[in-house]
Amino acid sequence: MPTLYFTVTNDLNYDQRMIRICRSLAEHGYEVWLIGRERKTSLPLTRQPFQQKRLPCRFEKGKWFYIEYNLRLFFYLLFRKMDLVCAIDLDSIVPVYLVSRLKKIKRVYDAHELFCEMKEVVSRPGIYRAWKWIEQRTVPKFLFGYTVNEPIAAAFRNMYQRDYGVIRNIARYQPLKPGIQREKIILYQGAVNEGRCFETLIPAMQWVDAPLWICGDGNFMEQTKALIRKYKLENKVICKGMMRPDELREVTQKAWIGLTLFEPGAESNYYSLANRFFDYMQAGLPQICVDYPVYREINKIHGFAVLTNELGEQELAQTINDLLQDEKKWQDLHAHCLSAAQKLNWQEEEKKLITFYRSILG
User: Fold this and answer.
1) What is the span of the domain harbouring residue 249?
2) What backbone phi and psi angles, to 5 degrees, belong to 45?
């Protein structure tokens, strides 16, 4: 039985994407280990059909966290027996590359985004140069890899002549529970990071007659909470924090509108394919989504989202209010969600994943 190790820098309990990938591979006969970080506030690990390990770190964020975590990860991997090791995004690629060379085993790069083009990276020249240096010296040495959409795959072909596959991060299809009671809740789920429009979304909520629930955490959370206080929206904008996947699915199924928003300017956002885009769809939840190429292409076929590039405070409030008040539009989008969920789901993407690893390992 081949042994596969996957490495991330986050807390494993909330990583729906890696839980799906590791579960699928474990169910198809591989011994799978998922390695992540342990925070001081981490809850006990949720039981999974694969092995999990969290590495404790003294530092919680910033460059010292990345240096410490990568050192700990290197030495942890070095003394483990494995047939393949996979780096999830750029922030764990260095120890994966070094260990795979020392052990003479296969290595895979799983790129969820154009890491160096994220706003929090590209807007800081020193940080950008450091990550770009790492990318240029490691990614070309990863013969095997995959990403979440064709534009990102094309970027790797153009930059590094690497022909990576496309395995989209789509939730598993599950019929909705009967008798779900929807509430007029606006929902944002996922990373609360720079470039996700919180600077306009929070003030826009002054003119929206419904609460906003923010389910997640990230590098823009403190600024988001400050905006909530600034506009005196503590009773309307609720930060729910991190949720386990099963809890988050329950919340998503009872909300009224989901949000998938990105600021213009960052290339990583422009070519993104956010997890929440499909999570909302699988939950039958109509959404307001930024009108970027990959989302536009999918929505042109399946029509389950309202696309917009009007991201100013009052324009965004108007778009949300229009969907809140238009019952027929909401019902049409909801029906399109249910139809698309049977075609766009993890059961279909999983086939590509298994084929990919079998082509490498047999």
Assistant:
1) 186-341
2) -65, 140
